[in-house]
Design goal:
Elements (H helix, E strand, L loop, with lengths): L10 H4 L2 H24 L3 H25 L14 H28 L2 H7 L11 H34 L2 H14 L6 H21 L3 H25 L2
């Protein structure tokens, strides 16, 4: 029923060595390097700088590799898409955001200090705890929202969907890889992030556009980081 872009446009990339080399870097090399550096970098600002530089560099590499294979930014999903479906998806996104905010408030009230501390164990170093880090977190959130959607939905979902002849297999594989890209946050985060990635992928497939997912992704990262950063600041010994 739904298609992403035009599968025939992706055939050059499907049969291109450059496309699969880039995919290997994105799906294997980057997560390993990210995991190692997350545990070695000494401050949140250093982690932010690495992520912004690495993810924007990967995005530039994605666009360049796409051009080598006759793919435009529109083929990657950076376009309005189906107007009606996009409007419907945007309405759903607003509802999801309000539900998430409400659920987080309820969960925060019910959680014990021990539960909060355990939940923040792997990501505490990543969270913004002062005004400088909070300002930098805005850039991190925009980077993740814009670039990760291009990389994991616009590129990986479309490429694997075209290669395997099924957009849903593309959704499955890209969601798994998105989860593993966040392995530095711990095993639990791999599953949770994979599920979130699947939701972003469905939004992309239904609307035919990355834009709604980019807006939701940015808003979620911004809200989660700032909210959890306040909690982490309060639980630092």
């Amino acid at each position: 029923m739904f298609t992403v872009g035009q599968p025939e446009v992706w055939q050059n990339a499907v049969h291109s060595g450059s496309a699969w080399i880039f995919t290997f870097v994105l799906a294997v090399v980057f997560p390993i390097l990210d995991y190692v550096l997350y545990n070695r970098l000494k401050s949140a600002l250093q982690i932010y700088a690495w992520n912004i530089l690495a993810i924007w560099s990967l995005t530039a590499g994605c666009v360049w590799t796409g051009r080598l294979n006759r793919l435009t930014i529109s083929d990657l999903g950076e376009q309005p898409g189906n107007v009606f479906r996009t409007l419907v998806v945007c309405g759903i996104i607003v509802a999801i955001i309000f539900l998430l905010i409400g659920a987080r408030k309820v969960q925060k009230k019910k959680a014990s200090p021990e539960q909060v501390d355990k939940a923040l164990e792997r990501v505490r170093r990543l969270l913004p705890k002062n005004s400088t880090e909070r300002k930098a977190w805005v850039l991190v959130s925009i980077t993740a929202g814009v670039c990760e959607e291009i990389l994991y939905r616009g590129w990986l979902l479309s490429l694997f969907g075209a290669a395997l002849g099924s957009v849903w297999l593309g959704l499955l594989i890209s969601s798994i890889l998105f989860g593993f890209a966040h392995s530095y946050q711990g095993r639990t985060a791999i599953f949770g992030t994979g599920v979130v990635g699947a939701i972003f992928g469905i939004i992309f497939i239904v609307s035919g556009s990355l834009i709604p997912g980019q807006l939701l992704h940015t808003a979620m990262d911004l809200n989660n980081g700032l909210a959890l950063g306040k909690v982490a600041k309060g639980t630092v010994a």
